Amino acid sequence: MFKRKKTTLTAPINLTTINDPSSVITEQIKTLRTNINFAATDQKLKTLMVTSATLGEGKSTVSANLAVEYANEGLKVLLVDADLRRPTVHKTFGISNQRGLSSWLGHQIQDVNKAIHPAVGNLFVMPSGPKPPNPAELLGSKLMGAFLKAAGEQFGVVIVDAPPILPVTDSQLLANKIDGTVLVVRQNVAQKVAVRDAVAALKQAHATILGTVLNDVQSKHHQNGYYGYSNGYYSDES
């Protein structure tokens, strides 16, 4: 299971950890990786879900760069695109999306290895596959749970790029199958009520919430957006 196949990485999209390893953003991703490890000290973190409250908050960019950094740490990493409605991983890593997670969950392919591609170093990626008519049903299935368990045994860490919480139920169905969840919150995009509702939905789904990533923060010293990490949540206080 999960055998290596040959592929070629072409034109990474928003992979700052590869394109600019000495940048402020890359340093923040490294800090994020470290803080996630600290937050998960009481449990063995094998599967990690990255999501957001709504669209456009940068969860896929965080997922991909975090996967690269875990791989740079020496772990064998699998990045799974579970956003079956608006996938990005295949574009980021320049691979085909003809076969992926939906293909295997929907029984279009029998060998899961045909849906997994080596990317950079220790990093493997599993694209979403063609858009299915029943994404929530597939992600909430027992087969998805079995896949995550098997992948967690084969890889050092499995990072799941999941759909936003509020528009669809997909991530809530995934939440209790995942060891830990990180919520990406984009400054000047996310509304406090939306973040609260997303956290409430995750808790209702029995997710283990490790913390939040405050994305696209502008500081006086660094004009480019970067990522900050907190294991608290937005409040009414500014």
Automatic annotation (TrEMBL):
InterPro entries xref list: Bact_polysacc_biosynth/exp (IPR050445), P-loop_NTPase (IPR027417), Wzc-like_C (IPR005702), YlxH/NBP35 (IPR033756)
EC number(s) per entry: 2.7.10.2
Protein origin, superkingdom: Bacteria
Protein name, entry field: CpsD/CapB family tyrosine-protein kinase
Entries under Pfam families matching the protein: ParA
Organism: Lactiplantibacillus songbeiensis
Protein keywords: ATP-binding, Capsule biogenesis/degradation, Exopolysaccharide synthesis, Kinase, Nucleotide-binding, Transferase
GO molecular function, one term: non-membrane spanning protein tyrosine kinase activity
